[in-house]
Write a structure and sequence with these properties.
The chain has about 100 residues and is an all-alpha fold. It has one domain. Helix 1 runs antiparallel to helix 2 and helix 2 packs antiparallel against helix 3. The radius of gyration is 16 Å and the shape is globular. Keywords: Membrane, Transmembrane, Transmembrane helix.
Length: about 100
Amino acid sequence: MMTALAAPAAKRIRAIYWTVAALVLLLPAIAMQVTAEVNWGPGDFAIMGGLLALVGIGIEMALKAALGTRARMLAIGAMLALFLLVWAELAVGLFD
């Protein structure tokens, strides 16, 4: 029977994800101080924060699910790929 990911490994993955998510959200804020090329408004930060939170919740669910390692990694990979597609569409309109 498959079980959820061991607690120490899951905690490490969670800490890594939420740290990276916070840094990704900080990058535009820092870039806006350095260059005029980056021009994010409060709505942009809210949408990116929401997207990162949804991906984080999805990763949390995948880590807690009683899946095998391969299925867990595929689920996380699919969530990250979907995030990148949505992000690219919102940024430059890939699918117009």
